Amino acid sequence: MTRIILIGAPVDSGQRRPGCLMGPSAYRVAGLAREIALEDHEIEDRGDVRPERLADVPCANPAVDQMTETVGWTLSLKAAVHQALRDGGFPVIMGGDHALALGTVAGAALWALEQKRPLFLLWLDAHSDFHTPLTTTSGNLHGTPLAYINGRDGFDGFPPFPAPVPAERICMFGIRSVDPAEQAAMQERDIQINDMRVIDEHGIVAPLRAFLDRVRAANGMLHVSLDVDFLDPSIAPAVGTTVPGGTTFREAHLVMELLHESALVTSLDLVELNPFLDDRGMTARLMVDLVGSLVGKKVFDRPTRPR
Predict the structure, then answer these.
(1) pLDDT digits (tens, 9 = 90+) for 156-210
(2) String of DSSP letters for 28-64
(3) 166 to each of 13, 107, 149, 151, how far by Cα in Å?
(4) I need a labelling partner for 210 at 20 to 30 A (CA). Which of 18, 26, 41, 45 fits?
(5) Is there a contact between 135 and 184 (Cβ–Cβ < 8 Å)?
């Protein structure tokens, strides 16, 4: 039995389309805690984190939006995730846009550093999020967390990342929307990118198992960051950055089942759910179901209609 700690992160500062702040409430209404408890895990909901109040944090790029609030979220979420891990828990962060990963992965990295274990990162997303505050042209900071995690320059005003995660410990799945500048920066660092063509040609299982084997061999901790737009918008419409051609229902569940079988995941982000854009809660319910697979729900546990 695992002690799973839910942390609400109503972060809406990483982009300009309102609604992600309702994500934590949507996960609660969709029964996330109940789904986890059904698999005999201990569950604790620590409520919603609030951003630290800061004086104005300037940015040299005038396009950047809501810099101060995003730095405040980074500080508070870093502390919340670090504390949850220190308490022996498995933190599940209910977001909130992907800017929350600036703080959540920092908290996991700090704990891994204290444990003298390497942190690995599985990035399940349509986007690479490898801009910095200085390179982004949209000014949306939800497109920057992976660059911060990897140790790129350009994050003046943010707390120093505890121990940047090197390229060989980062694995990206589902990528299908990358700016040329991001692509060039990632290629310089040789980050493993499993875009949708790789998945179409080789499937999900082989590259994911190869990555998990590396985590296991290094006695690593594994943080998983799951963006709604990893999924195809036909099954998960509740995201402001829809990109056609995402993973199917079955592919997404297979990823979660493989992660459960590995027993390597130590923390999880659920990001970019915008309930305002959902269709009768279908995206929130699907995300909850995916977490069910991650914590042990089997296909035979799923109710079906009589034939």
Answers:
(1) 999 999 999 999 999 999 999 888 889 889 888 888 889 889 899 999 999 999 9
(2) HHTTHHHHHHTTT-EEEEEEE--PPP-S----S-TT-
(3) 27, 16, 9, 8
(4) 41
(5) no
Which tokens in the block code for residue 117?
């274990």
DSSP 235-269: T----TT--SS-B-HHHHHHHHHHHHHHT-EEEEE
Calpha distance 257→293 (Å, rounded)? 5
Structure tokens at 129: 């999020």
Mean per-residue pLDDT pooled into runs of 10, the chain (307 residues): 95 95 98 97 98 96 97 98 98 98 98 98 96 96 97 97 96 91 87 89 94 98 98 96 92 96 98 97 98 88 57
Residue 7 tokens read as 């942390």
Identify the bridge partners of residue 120 per DSSP, sorted by sequence position.
222
Per-residue pLDDT tens for 91-109?
A: 999 999 999 999 999 999 9
Q: Note whether 247 and 230 are within 8 A (CB).
A: yes
Sequence-ordered alpha helix ranges (H) in the chain = 23-29, 32-37, 67-86, 101-114, 145-150, 180-189, 196-202, 205-217, 249-262, 282-294
240 backbone dihedrals φ, ψ, rounded to 5°:
-80, -5
Domains in the chain with CATH codes: 3-299 (3.40.800.10)
Separation CA 270–CA 96 (nearest Å):
8
**Catalytic machinery residues:** 98, 125, 127, 129, 142, 227, 229, 272
Say how far apart CA 80 and CA 93 lie, in whole Å. 10
- Return d(Cα 280, Cα 29) in angstroms, integer: 12
In this structure, what token pair is assigned to residue 292? 């069910």
